[in-house]
Amino acid sequence: xxxxxxxxxxxxxxxxxxxxxxxxxxxxxxxxxxxxxxxxxxxxxxxxxxxxxxxxxxxxxxxxxxxxxxxxxxxxxxxxxxxxxxxxxxxxxxxxxxxxxxxxxxxxxxxxxxxxxxxxxxxxxxxxxxxxxxxxxxxxxxxxxxxxxxxxxxxxxxxxxxxxxxxxxxxxxxxxxxxxxxxxxxxxxxxxxxxxxxxxxxxxxxxxxxxxxxxxxxxxxxxxxxxxxxxxxxxxxxxxxxxxxxxxxxxxxxxxxxxxxxxxxxxxxxxxxxxxxxxxxxxxxxxxxxxxxxxxxxxxxxxxxxxxxxxxxxxxxxxxxxxxxxxxxxxxxxxxxxxxxxxxxxxxxxxxxxxxxxxxxxxxxxxxxxxxxxxxxxxxxxxxxxxxxxxxxxxxxxxxxxxxxxxxxxxxxxxxxxxxxxxxxxxxxxxxxxxxxxxxx
Length: 441
Description:
By secondary structure, the chain is of the alpha+beta class. The chain contains eleven helices and 18 strands.
């Protein structure tokens, strides 16, 4: 492999675990080298509840991806979601000791660290602190305060909170499966990076990722993430309802949903019937497609209404916060027939289905571009971004060290000390989870 670093995304979902191997091709697009997937047995609503089974599923997915790509997988970028993730808005400020100096990185770090002192519920920890906009001495709507003068620096923050034990459990599974954690990312963010265009993020857009166990929401406006939420329902509850409503087994319910299911009951005629083989020695069952879509419709409406409540909580109804690009649906659940129409009907917002082909190489396999793999593609991209960042830091550091060594360099030639990248909170979290696992052995 010529110099192009590879990255592996590991999406630990409720229905499936996906390992995806990718690298940047020579045009800067993402080339997927191989996918492996396994049925996920130890995960409920996005949270690991059986460590042993999850480890086995991870290993199976990774082996498959290794076989498909011919690459030995050692490090993975893993996504966290699950019903324990919630977010809140918070404002905080610091008073600067010396307003003669311009605001720099350290001031912003101080402000962000202050947010970390917020008191959470037991077992919860802050995962992400995302500054929305700053105020300097009362002057509002400042996007980037670095380099400005001012005594009081304040900001609105979008704070994402989650249960630290759930995150450690994911780390534990990855480590026990014989892999290293390269990074941890919030799944709604990963999916968003894979399917949204920059224009949409600027105009204002809500990404709804309908998975098996949870539905994730991420809202962007002016290019910044504004709101995240995880709703503890997904495609599995629809299957469950079909199973109960039609008295059939889960496998059959899932197939019915995928093959004949529709979110819009008006579409089916009364006389359209599917016959399902009965269990051993029993009569086959006849199910009308109209009934099937009524069952699906009821559940989907419930999911969308909950998501819409979150969109309204963000403030979509205020003129300044309007989401002009509307809604993008992704994840396996977004493939349900007529879902787009139903979402538009309930929310009154423009809707499209999001395929993760925004950054993929043109000749990608059709399977990879399915909404099912949006999160995995996003995780691979995230891993590549991290590697890129590390490389740049290393290069800057090396140049700095070499410049110091050559003493005969005149004042002008000495390179400035490399600016340390501000670590995102997820990088710090990854390090903390790694430390915890290393010391817990």
